[in-house]
Task: structure prediction
Amino acid sequence: MPDAADPAAMNARRKFRREGEERRRQDLIEATLDSVAEHGLQGATLRTIALRAGVTAGLIRHYFPGKEELLQEAYTALVGRMTEQAKAALVMEDASPRRRLAAFVTANLNAPIIDTRVFSLWATFIGRAGADSTLARAHREGYLGFRNEVEAVVAEVLAAERRKTDAGELRHHAIAINAIIDGLWIEGCLAGEMFSPGELAAIGIKAVEAELGLAPLEQFQEK
Amino acid sequence: MPDAADPAAMNARRKFRREGEERRRQDLIEATLDSVAEHGLQGATLRTIALRAGVTAGLIRHYFPGKEELLQEAYTALVGRMTEQAKAALVMEDASPRRRLAAFVTANLNAPIIDTRVFSLWATFIGRAGADSTLARAHREGYLGFRNEVEAVVAEVLAAERRKTDAGELRHHAIAINAIIDGLWIEGCLAGEMFSPGELAAIGIKAVEAELGLAPLEQFQEK
DNA sequence: AGGCTATTTATACACTTGCACAACAAGGCC
DNA sequence: GGCCTTGTTGTGCAAGTGTATAAATAGCCT
Result:
């Protein structure tokens, strides 16, 4: 414990540890996302971010050319994490296409994807996409990746039902299903307490199955 | 034309006009929304806003207690305008419920509701809703008003089809349809050039009708 | 152990920000 | 026309911003 009356202790330089480059960059990006989620882009100052990362502000310039590049990398990391999580629900190799689609919808409408912090981050960054082409591209890539994934599962589901569909129809289904998931995701993030657990997922599955013209699975039928 | 070499002209005070209170407040709010849409919350400084409104920064304090209150009023005005426009498509008194629902979906998936500027504003503000309870309340009110409107039309449509539905089912339909419109709205705002004119509205109408289990109207059926 | 180097801290700087306040003048009122 | 209210301008200020850069030290190499 430094003695406030001791001039030498007052001038003492802060102790520090040298971390690996990758680790430091990761920590700084995480601190940036936390700052943006809590106080918005205006509150995410270099000093706030550095404080949260446990370093001093000057260090940021050692890893990033400037604040803008740090924010862009943070957003890219966020989008990557979001789409990765979302698509993770699709890797059930053994299940039927319909079950995989249902699991996909369910996963996207529950924690950890329904999350106010992630939503705040998404909204804050996407609001700047119209003005910042770097952010716009990062979003576009994540979005198209997600929609292609949807389209692939839909194709499998319809094939399993022996329904022939042309490419345009398939695309429309994917767009609509993507919209259903996005819309319910927003509702869940913004007003999660208005819905009972699992309710959003149930609504989502029903809406998706209606869109595809699928009869409800037997175990989900009532009476 | 002031002479730059003339000291008296250099010190000349700027000419101004006294505007009505309501007019000035309106102008300031509009300038605020423009600033936020263009440069985000960080770029919306008092000086930028004042410049856009054609006044000097000091005047803002004469109409608003501080910057935060100005932003809150601006967001309230935005939400009000959005829901008002969205609901305006429902006032076709004479049309059938189904036609009114279709017109509602169409109106919400075309200009001026599909608009990158409005979307940027919405995203920027909503990203702060998690931290600012005033913004959160403004959003909640607009959202619930919108969803109630949807629920009312859905009830009319189902009644016209002589289908009995309980309250819970009705609520689920409204939530799903709301999500479909929101999701497609976002897609249209963020990547409007990926869709041909009217395509989003067509997708939306089909998805909504599928959700409600309605057979396509005759003139929309193919072959 | 001792030196080297890259990581990290600390300080400085020019600039912007929101806010406070005094000076000013526009326009209604008599 | 002259005055008075108050809408409006201009200036000042302390706090905070991103960036630049010098000074220090942690930890590897030999």
Summary: Chain A is about 65% helix and 0% strand. The CA atoms of residues 32 and 71 of chain A lie 7 Å apart.
